[in-house]
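cron nightly-structures :: item 1 of 1
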Amino acid sequence: MLEQWLGIGTATSVQTLKSSLDTVVGLPWVNTVAADRAGNALYADASVVPRVTTDKFVGNCLLLPALVLFDGSRSACGWGQDANAPAGIFSPANAPSMLRTDYVGNSNDSYWLTNARSLLTGPAPLGYSPLYGKTGVEQRLRTRIGFIQFEELAQQGHQFQLSDLQTLVFADRIYAAELVLPDLLAACPTNDATLVQACTVLAAWDRHANLDSRGAVLFREFWTAASQIPNKWKVPLDPADPVHTPNGVAPAALPAMFAALKTAAQTLQSLNIPLDAKLGDYQGETRNGARTPLHGGVGDVDGSYNSLRMSTGLTTTGYNNVYWGTSYVQTVTFDDAGPVAQAMLVYGQSTDPKSPYYADQLPLYSRKEWPTLPFTDAGINADPNRKTTTLTE
């Protein structure tokens, strides 16, 4: 793995980076995404994957699919050998990769959707090994909103700046709401006071998870249950368009949807939380007695690109303290002088409650402010908080 990272660090273009990935097998599980000054973008899965080819999945070698259990008594079912790779694993040269001049992306979903304009299907006729991930299947909502946001801006012929990417990262759109609310609100019953109130709140909600978004708490409680409803989509998955499908609410799923919405409204009422409560009043992180309101949704569940999983469910004080999610966030470009990077470590630079850096960056995240990381000597020396320590033996 160290040799692989050295190869990545010394690459001068995405082509030389890809050559390094193909030559040295050492990355554990991660995807590799890179861009270079010539305007090329690379996606590659150069992780260590058993060399079990697709034909072994579709033949009689696979004995128990649920456990990915193969017949080890026959050499024909063995893992095999790739050139330039240890026995039993794929060479990254034969793994999923894509090189383009517009963009590539991945949000912890299948390699299949690396670019919304060109799906990565793999070599004919059987494609890449299923061990790399599934193709032709529904993608997570967070993956979909990432591509939708990017494509909406790209189709305007816009030349991207750091500020554009930062806006997309913290746009806090709730894609599930965009998919289901048009059909849900159009069919809202008029003979149930609780549902009428809930639908009124959701109709006025901005369909975001910003601090001042009213209705985000109600929708989260609703969608946490409603997302599990089977056969809920009106338009099924189109494998040729995994970004925009499936979508809509199937008429047969509406009764279950409204039952989930009513339950969600009653949950808020039982906790004395207004149905149109601001998200920032009920989602926050408390450190050393100080509470910081937090924006963000639940990622793969509700389709917020900015994903937080809170440590508690909904309580009288809301969703309290982050369990995991958005953590280190960095946007980078280059000018003639070198790297230009803005970033934050959302939950603070220290885990020690006595440290002044324990919660120093939470307010920055809350306000969506991106501090600049000094790179040059001049930039470092200009930092008003700069300190020097001289060590002697």
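cron nightly-structures :: done
Residues 254-270 form the longest helix (17 residues).
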